[in-house]
Records
---
Amino acid sequence: MSFENNEDRRPNTKPLHFLLVPLLAQGHMIPMVDLARLLAARGNLVTFATTPINLARIQPIVERAAAAAASTLQIRFIELSFCVADAGLPDGCENIDLLPSMDLLFPFLNSLHLLREPLEAHLQAPDPFQWPRPACLISDNIQNWTIDFARALDIPRLIFQGPSCFFLLCDLLINRHVVELEAAMAAASGGPVILPGLTRPIRISKHELMLTLRSDPGWFKFIETMKELEDTSEGILINSFVELESWYIERYHEEIGKPIWPVGPLSLYNKEEDAKAVRGRVSSIDNKFLLQWMDGKEPGSLASGALHTIRWSRLWRLATG
């Protein structure tokens, strides 16, 4: 496991070519663009692959990266055709938040393999810049087609995880101990119980177990797909940093037995205020109202709900981007 965060650009070494394939969701693509800039800033070559609609949606970020690339960074953004009609999806549904109904979520996730053929065609086409073949593929843990794709290229495949390591560890333990947790919660008359596997006690409630979604066969398949992607990867990149959650990073490393590289917080790579302003969609909640709401709460009351997002689990994290 490496926690090194070296700012050197390795000018005397041969540049590596990283191929980034993010999930088609805003909350995944935006930090992956930041990751692309971070890799390129260290003298590497980066290809960022997505679809036309998604590239248009992050155009302000792409333009900033392209401006930097003109002087120092070497990043290419490529468009992959995504025939959503072949997956039975409405026209234009190239992003999770563009789906008209969450009933289409699993069909959408199961259609992501359609990106493989156009990506292969791009890599096989003559390259006017004569970049070397990719030396490493980085994707989300949803793109299951990248397993065979990376094997065909004979290159390592890394997974990029956007949430905190606290979330990742708790999510892993909840899925591993779900039967035990359900029994303990029944014995406690539905009250909160301690999550096993942590030396620091974390209590979870019935909401965190996501009983309804776990009864869906599609949910089981979804969990198994993510597990396979993680099990067959060479390591994990997380959008966090050691000083924030060193204990959880160590425990997560012990649980998955793979190298972990904390590369975050990637949002801080955008040091200019106007650069941060163009990231993602405009919030539907006024910042002043939000701060006033937080100021009106009892001290410590917001921290007590730190595990609240676990109840949406990975599925709703994907849906909301």
---
Amino acid sequence: MSPSPTERTSTSPGNGRTAPPGCGDPARPALAWERARDLARDSAGPPLPAVTRDLPDALGHALAAPLRALTDLPPFDTSAMDGWAVAGPGPWRPRDDGVLAGEEPGPLGPGTAVRIATGAPVPAGASAVLRREHGEIEEGTGLLLDRSEGQIAPGRDVRPRGQECRADDVLLPVGTTVTARVLGLAAAAGYDRLAVHRRPVVELLVLGDELLESGVPRHGRVRDALGPLLAPWLRGCGAEVTGRRRVPDDLALLRAAVWDSTADVVVTTGSTAAGPVDFLHAALAELGARLLVDSVAVRPGHPMLLAELPPAADGRPRHLVGLPGNPLAAVAGTVTLAVPLLRGLGGHRDPEPPRTVAAAALPRHPRDTRLLPVRRTEQGAEPLPFDGPAMLRGLACADGLAVVPPGGVAAGATVEVIDLPPDG
């Protein structure tokens, strides 16, 4: 590992409140937005190691092995309706007993029938299920008659064994995100535990002396909006967020906070530009970090960065994602750099980018990609007001962020819309 902060010579004055020269490089060209996203994903390298989790604890992880069926589904022929299991053509002599779900019925002889509930195993010898509303017991004879039109076809209203899958069929591939729906399928297929990739551990460092933790903005200070917003979003992206720390505008304190973090990914807010108290570039330089992305041609959010930190004591690679301090700009940085990195580390497959029609012309930036809050309507993606870098009002009403290229998007044209990270 690189020398500790105390072993390095600080390039700032004693109180650490003056930005050293070389903090950011305004002459360095910003990376294209698509390239920055690809670099973030590629920098993750191989996914984190596989672990085994009980089904509830696997939620949000990515499968580290294919989900193979441990049994046929259904595991036996089952009734699709309430009614009677019947053997051969009618009329039938009904038995006195019945078959409920969870029971093992005895065989059914030719010309006989037995009452059966939805989901119950179909007795051996049964040819079909006669729906309750189609069956009638004839007075006098006690025979079961079919009052539907035509002959009851063999296999009618029976879910045959293996209709959904056979044992050892691949149900889901490696890299599938474990959702509640996946948990249900895994349980149905016989699983108690799943092999999944470890979730990347993230620590959130919120930088800035101007931030308040409670109350209304006052005395030139503003509320921290990013701490409450980003922590659940990062969890929703598959991260395990272990902490959120406030760090004052001080080079030595920032450098120490990054150095001391044991997280796989450190996410910072603010200090990514070249202002008088923007110390992140200097702190990374002193720690021996390697900048992978330093400014992206996207609005809002262009002064974002991605760095490879010195490895942890156990040799684990570590990364830092530097997000701008303005709220919507930080959201742009999250979907550009943090989300691809976290998905790569967690072993998640990348879905096809969703595209939709623009309900109206989407305003452009003359040179850069623009990420614009939109709402999905019947007419398509509709741009929302209050889309400035420091605003969250439009985002709060948005379904996603439209990716608007420098040329803009005309009404009726298709546009990529990034889904917002789910709340963790």
---
Amino acid sequence: MSTEVRVPTLGESVTEATVATWFKKPGDSVAVDEMLCELETDKVTVEVPSPAAGTLGDIVAAEGETVGVDALLATISEGGEASTEKAAPAKEEVKSSEATDDKISGQIEVKVPSLGESVTEATVGSWFKKVGDSVAADEVIAELETDKVSVEVPAPQAGVIASILVGEGETVGAGGTLALLSGDAAGARTVAADDSADATPPAASSAGKDVEHAPSAKKLMAEKGLTPDQVQGTGRDGRIMKEDVQNAKAPAAAASAASIVTAAPAPAATPRAPVPADDAAREERVKMTRLRQTIARRLKEAQNTAAMLTTYNEVDMSAVMALRKQYKDEFEKKHGVRLGFMSFFTKACVHALREVPEVNAEIDGTDVVYKNFVHMGVAAGTPTGLVVPVIRDADQMSFAAIEKAISEKGKRARDGKLSMAEMQGGTFTISNGGVYGSLMSSPILNPPQSGILGMHKIQDRPVVVNGEIVIRPMMYLALSYDHRIVDGKGAVTFLVRVKEALEDPQRLLMDL
């Protein structure tokens, strides 16, 4: 009996991929979920796991070939010794095979749940149970961290944790096996003795091993005049991928830059200065979560890519505060949600984006993509870091609908329940640093968006109105924008329109 290995789903709008590397050759034994090959798309690198244990048969799509979604890649002949083999150190080959037979028989695999579009791996953040613990069906037993969200792993059925195959801090691919669940405590105790060997797979060593770089990367290196030594590979075993070449500087450009400016190494590449022993003893070193690493990377990318500039203004919040005070009780009674400031700012931004559409656009190569809709990102701070849930079609929503959406997504963000889809596709973002007491700041763009509005603390300040000094509740506004697509005139006009709409909310009703 043979099993087909096919191209998995590649993500929204991605219809084909290039076979980058085969990790196995025909005749090799493979275990369930063992990585067979790696595919490259324009956006991500996708690993293809084995759907069954057995022996790899014919490879239909060779390295460098382009394949579509669900295309046949290879076949696997099931049966034989391969069906009971898992990757293990050579010195424990027999023991591992026997232990694997023990575990598979009558036990349930705890698999990595769906991680979302384009996410191919996750890091085990925490195990809430240990080997030998009893669990109920659907009880959360572990938490995974991806680049964007945390994912809880429930027990597929009631039983006992027989073994944990992936420890905290280790990375596991989509669909991988995290643990084995036994329906009987005795079975768990039998397997527990071998956990230390099974739960820690041998570290892959690339020493002395030839690394085959991705075909698309080789082609691009040739076009840019680069050698592998000049590119930092981020793929498996240091393999160079297409995006690595795209991020590398051509020799001429690098030499030109070096001749103009002799700069110190980037902070990220600079080794940490020596720390006195008494200080080091009082320090605590904690590995950054994948979410925090992604936040850091994306914010730095925004600074490196966009021509980012910020313009400021201030708004008198008297009218909005009076309107809110007058109607907040009736609003909450009718709509079941409190009337906050975010719906006013969302409406004001939607109004301004109609007049200055480039703030709602993005750059794609040499094209400008204008959006005839507004998917509003609302930045939210959570215990694990900053996330930006998206309110889709905010331009079509009422005040009540906006408030309900913001309230619901804010709660899901704080609870770590946001899905990948809920954080994708934003066209403009609002960030409210005022809730933390910030008086003024310059927000950083959320790529590929071209604009972000920063709200700040409302503070009573003396201002001049009709020739008299009066005390008014004032807020500083900051619009950071990509100067490559948005001119200064457009940015200032946008911010003035937001100011006008907030100081005279009736303008929103009159569409002025």
---
Amino acid sequence: MSSTDLRLGLRANLAQFSLLVLVNALVGGMVGQEQTVLPLLAEQEFHLSGYTFLFTYVFVFGISKAVTNYFAGTWSDRFGRKPVLIAGWLIAIPVPLMLIWAPDWGWIVAANLLLGINQGLTWSTTVIMKIDLVGPRQRGLAMGFNEAAGYGAVAITAALAGHLAEQHGLRPVPFLLGAAYVVLALALSSLAVRETREHARLEAGQPTTAPGVRTELTNGQVFTRTTITDPALSSASQAGLVNNLNFGLSWGLFPLLFASAGLTVGRVGLLVALYPAVWGAGQLATGALSDRWGRKHFITAGMLTQGAALALIALADTFSAWIAATVLLGAGTAMVYPTLLATIGDVAHPGWRARSVGVYRLWRDSGYAAGAVLGGVVADLADIRAAVWAAAALSLASGISIAIRMHETHPRNRRADEEIA
């Protein structure tokens, strides 16, 4: 496609957009294969004691994904989006095999190092590519579809892996899902996905970006703006970190908390899946609504809702109560997740937007590691419920900070020249 044929908008790019939604579902499924099974594998096959040691796999995943997010943004600007996407899937090839054949916990940790790199390269790139395609008017909707696909697949795969583990054992059958995802995603990314960097350049030449935003920044300036100096970008970064701290903590501790109440593996898998399922499906609505109503209030309410949900999880001790609490936690996360990414797209100029997305995702996915450290240390020093209480307090503090510091970023008063679906 020549540069003169390029158009922005969801309708104009529906085929490629839909393909990227499918690819990101496969990205999410790679995480979902682990969520129910690995904590149980740690206890039952590797006989690990101590929550901090068990959390090493979440910590390594979070650190590797966070750092890779940063480079995914800079490499996407330098080399293009598609090569980065393909590289991410090539790195994923050994992950399910390592999980299946791991003779000790070190192999599991190494597999999660590679999985974090895979997630950082592939998920970051699908985010950037969708923002490129749709232009400024429909960022919330685009991010809603992207994150709904990813976390919907996390939920479905977590539930399916739990069912397979209950029927066939913890290994190898649940991890065969991941092997199939890698093969399909690598084929689609190599053969069907098209480069989108020229769409970002097209948008940069149109009068649709925020007034007063600098068009050229160094990598250091982008990092500083997104981390500290810009109230909206830095607020999004801290909220993203706390949000994923909650997810990282849930990944390691929730299966153990639910199992400690005598729940079967199938019920544990259902509860673990409910959180990302509601999170994923809810984003289809919240992303689009943030395009109409703005970003700030969704983010504030979402962080406060997560805090309340975590408090309920810490208090509850029955299956039905945990169902209600995990649904509430998923709803709060759905309000936040696509809206934070849309905020980055609102504020960052197309010339440095991919790098800003990379920095935001660096901080956001550092939350996995923070959740592993917080959850592991507090659970070892006190108990699992105390760790959940700590996450609840941080979520409430994050919501209050957003309400005080962040300004509204939605470009509702700007003219949009792209075709509206």
